[in-house]
Each structure stands twice: as C-alpha cells, then as structure tokens.
Write a structure and sequence with these properties.
Structural class: mainly alpha
Strand content: under 5%
Helix content: over 70%
Number of strands: 0
Number of helices: 5
Radius of gyration: 15 Å
Shape: globular
Largest sheet: none
Order of helices and strands: HHHHH
Length: 122
C-alpha cells in the first residue's frame, strides 16, 4: 500500500508539472495568478514545473525500494502537513477562492490523511 501511495504521488506531481509547464497560460490564471511579469512567469515555471517534477522523481525513487517506503511516507507528511496548514489558513483569510484552489486543497488534505493513516498503521 505504501508503494502505491508513493507512486500515486509521483504520478500526480508529474501530471501537474507537465500540465503547468505546457499550459501555463491557462493554469496560472486558474490558480489565481492574474498577470505575470517575465520574472513571474520564470518563477511560476520553476516552481510549478521544475519543483513539481523534482517531487515526482523523489516520490518515484522512494516508491521503488521497500526499505525507503517508511522514509517516503515521512517525507510526504513533512511536505503535506505544512502545505495543508498554510492552505487552510490562506483560504480562510482570502475567501472566496477559485475551484482549482478548492480542488487542490481537497487533494492535499486527502494525501495528508492517507499518508498519516499509512504511517500510523505500520
């Protein structure tokens, strides 16, 4: 089950990296980035393309070796716990937010919950 969770994370990050890189002109506004300067476009591609691709590779590598599953789950928890906290606080602070933000938040909460369940059930 841990391998499936880690591979699922790898696939999700790969899909998001490609989606945000190839479709930046559509994804950036959908996420609330109304206008980006050249520096903003560079930063968007670096984080939403490069960082997410890096996370996809990390999760894929962690999923491949059963000895790395527990550290992989801990990595996921270390990643998702602060993301979910910041997401929920920022959504409450800046409400209303768009559907892409709501969908992303729901996915992050699910990934945190499943990762917590996997960690505690070991």
């Amino acid at each position: 089950m841990s391998a499936l969770y880690l591979y699922a994370n790898a696939v999700l990050y790969l899909v998001f990296a490609v989606w945000c890189t190839v479709g930046m002109s559509r994804t950036a506004p959908a996420m609330g980035f109304a206008a980006l300067t050249s520096g903003g476009r560079s930063e968007y591609l670096t984080i939403y393309g490069g960082l997410q691709l890096g996370l996809a590779v990390a999760f894929w590598l962690l999923a491949r070796n059963p000895e790395w599953h527990k550290p992989g789950i801990l990595f996921a928890l270390a990643l998702y716990a602060p993301i979910v906290v910041f997401r929920l606080i920022s959504m409450a602070r800046f409400w209303p937010v768009g559907n892409v933000t709501l969908g992303t938040a729901a996915l992050e909460v699910v990934l945190l919950a499943v990762g917590t369940w996997l960690y505690l059930s070991r």
